[in-house]
Amino acid sequence: MKTKAAHALRFGNHVSVYAGCSFALGLNGSAVVGDFTLLNGALVMADERIEIGSHCLISWNVGIADSDFHPLEPAQRLIDAQAVAPFYKDRPPRPKLETRPVKICDNVWIGMNAIVLKGVTIGENSVVAAGAVVTKSVPANCVVAGNPAAVVKTFQ
To answer: If residue 78 lies in a helix (H) or strand (E), which one and from where to where?
Structure first.
């Protein structure tokens, strides 16, 4: 499933989205969810692109983000706070933020309270343990756990 449209949310066939799920798409953000994927209480935040494959299981309170969503530098954060204030009449433009797409391949299970950060690819058939913080890409056919997430098991 492919999309080139900005600010797009696309679902494949037989996707299950349960209570508590949120999709926050920036002006140029898109999120794509493949066939037979289940999302249960996840937060998907795309300023660029997040792709979730088919047959994935995304558990409660999982966060997936392709950006930091606010600048790290203190002076830029001050500007950002004014820029996102909805009723501030002299709102400045938001500072440019670094984004990197996230890709979750087919048949991935992400456990409760895990966080997947910008630029990460999670290989097919992999498992992200509950509470893991995924800061780097994950190979196919493995289990990762911890903060930062590290491989703790591989599948044949």
So the answer is: helix 74-83
Report pLDDT digits (tens) over 97-140. 899 999 999 999 999 999 999 999 999 999 999 999 999 999 99
| pTM greater than the 0.85 cutoff | yes
pLDDT of residue 1: 47
For residue 131, what is the domain's CATH number? 2.160.10.10
Which residues pair with residue 50 across a beta bridge? 31, 102
Domain annotation covers residue 114: yes
14 is a catalytic site residue: no
Closest by Cα among 71, 72, 67 to 45: 67
The answer on 149 and 81 residing in a single domain is no
Given the residues 7, 14, 55, 70, the one annotated as active site: 70
